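Entry 14. Ran structure prediction on the chain below.
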Amino acid sequence: MNNIYIKLHQLNKSKFRSNFHLTDKDKNYIKEKGLETIKKHAYDFVNKRIAPQVIENDGNQTPMRGHPVFVAQHATATCCRSCLYKWHNISKNKKLNNQEIKYIIDIIMEWINNELST
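Output, structure tokens:
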């Protein structure tokens, strides 16, 4: 079984993480923009807010709502470096590499796809 599916299953058991869901507004936004554009947004957000070695406002850099990717980041524990370390064992004090960024984007997009099918 793919590591992403195992991790999503584990996250779904968390009372906090399992409370996040896309709203109808989020789903309509995704439908309007298309999944490829949402994926580009995810890369942009992760590269700017999560990937740098030093993040001044770590723990507060990802809003709870306002974009489907933000919701997905909280649901998948990819919202800050502390959550990435706790849930995904990705070290805090280093710049993320391309493989780590791809993993984060993949889990975000898989969660979004799952939400769209419910």
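The CA atoms of residues 16 and 75 lie 8 Å apart. Will compare against last week's run tomorrow.
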